[in-house]
Recover the amino acids of this structure.
């Protein structure tokens, strides 16, 4: 979860988020190199009295300032295409969860289990326990098994919503009458928070998302308790 005065992105808690962070660092490095080269060139031009008139209209110079941007875009595009490929090339899921957005709460249905569904409402500020984040904690968290591929089917009952968990690098719109799919894997235990990222009405700011990643054995005990 973000902290006050934080300048960097959150730590990656899924393989895809690690890829996103890698590409972000790579792209920012490329941009920094471009900025430094431009600033050095401007400094040299503005401080030196040497000026070659012939190079101002040389064909090789025009060729170079056309070739260099092409190379830069190529170096940025190749890792981006790899990340997009990994985003779509997912293994078969071990668990399927259907998520339904309402005004203004979420419902979760575990399709692999019979009669296993619940609603998730935000806990009001006066009911929070010590240490619980304001406007983010819910009464029923979505539980997911750690190191297992999870498929999330997202839709909405009334208006547009958006199901987002930044720490896992996942986000998709919840559209009435349409199913959107997310496939992800968590690599460590913990509680991950998000919020609806689509303006959906008066209480748009009060329908948070809370997912808890836990070991498989603990997840099985959780499902047993919920079914009983």
């Amino acid at each position: 979860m973000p902290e006050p005065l934080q300048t960097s992105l959150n730590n990656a808690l899924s393989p895809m988020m690690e890829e996103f962070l890698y590409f972000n660092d790579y792209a920012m490095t490329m941009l920094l190199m471009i900025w430094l080269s431009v600033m050095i060139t401007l400094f040299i031009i503005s401080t030196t009295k040497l000026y070659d008139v012939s190079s101002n209209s040389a064909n090789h110079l025009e060729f170079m300032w056309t070739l260099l941007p092409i190379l830069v875009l190529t170096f940025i595009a190749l890792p981006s295409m790899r990340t997009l490929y990994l985003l779509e090339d997912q293994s078969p899921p071990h668990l399927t969860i259907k998520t339904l957005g309402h005004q203004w709460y979420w419902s979760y249905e575990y399709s692999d289990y019979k009669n296993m569904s619940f609603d998730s409402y935000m806990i009001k500020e006066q009911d929070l326990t010590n240490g619980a984040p304001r406007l983010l904690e819910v009464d029923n968290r979505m539980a997911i098994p750690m190191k297992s591929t999870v498929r999330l089917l997202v839709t909405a009952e009334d208006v547009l919503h958006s199901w987002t968990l930044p720490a896992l690098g996942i986000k998709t719109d919840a559209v009435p009458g349409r199913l959107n799919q997310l496939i992800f894997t968590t690599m460590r235990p913990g509680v991950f928070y998000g919020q609806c990222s689509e303006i959906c009405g008066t209480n748009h700011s009060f329908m948070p998302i809370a997912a808890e990643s836990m070991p498989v054995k603990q997840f099985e005990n959780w499902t047993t308790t919920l079914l009983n």
User: Anything to note?
Assistant: The mean pLDDT is 87. The helical segments are 15-47, 59-88, 216-227.
